[in-house]
Amino acid sequence: MMSASNRPVALLTGASAGIGKATARMLVSMGWQVIGTGRDQLRSTAAIAEVSAAAQDGGSFTMLRGDFNLMADVKRVADEVMALTPRLDVLINNAGGVRDRLITTDEGTEATFAVNHLAPFLLTRELMPLLKATATAQPTGTVRVIGVASSAHRHSPGFNFDDLQSMASGHPVAAYCQAKLANILFTRELSRRVGPDRIVAQVMHPGVVASNFASHGDEAMQTHMASAPTVSPDEPAETLVWLATDPEGGCQSGRYFHKKAEEVPADVALDDAAAARLWSESEVLLAGLGF
Question: Which of 32, 61, 113, 176 is catalytic?
Answer without folding.
Answer: 176
